[in-house]
Write a structure and sequence with these properties.
This protein is of the alpha+beta class and 267 residues long. It has 7 helices and 16 strands. The longest helix has 11 residues, at 118-128.
C-alpha cells in the first residue's frame, strides 16, 4: 500500500532499502531508523542491521537487539543493552538489531529544570518542542526512575503483545542518569511509537531500560528538532496503512500500569 502523503509531508519521510541506506552518512537534525514498529508487531524480531552500521548514522538513540534481547540505549556514540535481569552491558558492533532509531544529536541550548514529576516532565518537553518530531536528552538526578525490559525471544516468535506480557519492571532510582529518545506524532503510528519513547541509562552504566516513570529532581533538557526521518526497510518489510487497533495496541504495550509490575529482576 502506498505511503500516506500526509505522513511524508509531516515527517519529511524518506524510505530506502538496506543496501542504499547503509551508505548514507549521518546528517544533523535527521533521524535514521531501521525497520518499523509494525514489523515488531508482526513478530519480526531477527536483526537485519548491525550495531556498527547503526552507529554510523547517529550517536544517540534507542531500540532493541536481535530476538528482542533487551532495551537498546545509545549514548554519546556508544551502544548498551539493558536486559530483563537488570544488567547492562556494551553492545558489540557485530550484534544486529531488528528495530532502532538514532540521530547525530545536535541540540539547542540546555534548559535547566527541577522538581518535575513524570507527567510534568513530559508536559515540559511538549511545551519546549517546536517541530512534529524531536530527539531529546534529559540528564540529571532522578528521585524515581522506573524501567522495564523483556526477555529474549526464540522461534517461533510470539506476537509482541505476548512478549510485553512477560516484561519485568523495576526501580533504579534515586539515581543520576540520562534519558534519551524521540517524540513522533500520531500520524507516524505503525512506522514509529507515537508520543514520547524514552530509554534510560544510569551514569554508572550499571542499570537502565525502557522508561515507565521518571521523576526528575534536577537536571537539564536538550532538544533537537528533527527535519527529516530516513527509514531503512529490511527485505520483506513494507510501510502500510496501520490496522485500526494498532495505536491502541502500542499504547497498551508502552503504558502498562507501573503499579501492576511483574517480578523484579534478579541481581
Amino acid at each position: 500500500m502506498a505511503i500516506d502523503p500526509a505522513l511524508i509531508h509531516a515527517l519529511h519521510l524518506s524510505v530506502e532499502d538496506h543496501d542504499a541506506a547503509a551508505a548514507d552518512p549521518a546528517v544533523a537534525h535527521r533521524v535514521f531508523q531501521t525497520s518499523t514498529v509494525q514489523a515488531l508487531i508482526d513478530s519480526r524480531y531477527d536483526g537485519d542491521l548491525s550495531i556498527g552500521e547503526l552507529l554510523a548514522h547517529g550517536d544517540m538513540g534507542l531500540g532493541t537487539i536481535d530476538g528482542l534481547d533487551g532495551e537498546l540505549v545509545v549514548v554519546h556514540g556508544q551502544a548498551f543493552v539493558a536486559r530483563v535481569d537488570g544488567s547492562v552491558e556494551p553492545v558489540g558492533d557485530d550484534v544486529r538489531t531488528p528495530f532502532a532509531v538514532v540521530t547525530p544529536f545536535a541540540p539547542g541550548t540546555p534548559q535547566p529544570v527541577q522538581g518535575l514529576a513524570h507527567d510534568a516532565l513530559l508536559a515540559t518537553l511538549d511545551n519546549l518542542c517546536t517541530a512534529p518530531v524531536h530527539a531529546v536528552r534529559v540528564h540529571g538526578h532522578f528521585s524515581r526512575l522506573r524501567v522495564r525490559s523483556v526477555p529474549r525471544q526464540h522461534r517461533p516468535y510470539p506476537p509482541l503483545d505476548a512478549v510485553t506480557a512477560q516484561q519485568v519492571e523495576w526501580e533504579i532510582g534515586p539515581v543520576d542518569a540520562v534519558l534519551v529518545g524521540f517524540r513522533f506524532p500520531a500520524l507516524a503510528t505503525g512506522v514509529e511509537v507515537p508520543g514520547w519513547h524514552l530509554h534510560a541509562l544510569a551514569d554508572d552504566r550499571r542499570s537502565g531500560g525502557h522508561v515507565l516513570i521518571a521523576d526528575l529532581d534536577h537536571g537539564t533538557i536538550e532538544l533537537d528538532p528533527v527535519t527529516e526521518v530516513h527509514c531503512e526497510l529490511p527485505p520483506g518489510v513494507e510501510i502500510v496503512a496501520p490496522a485500526d487497533d494498532l495505536a491502541d495496541r502500542i499504547h497498551a504495550a508502552e503504558t502498562q500500569s507501573p503499579d501492576s509490575a511483574r517480578q523484579e529482576p534478579s541481581r
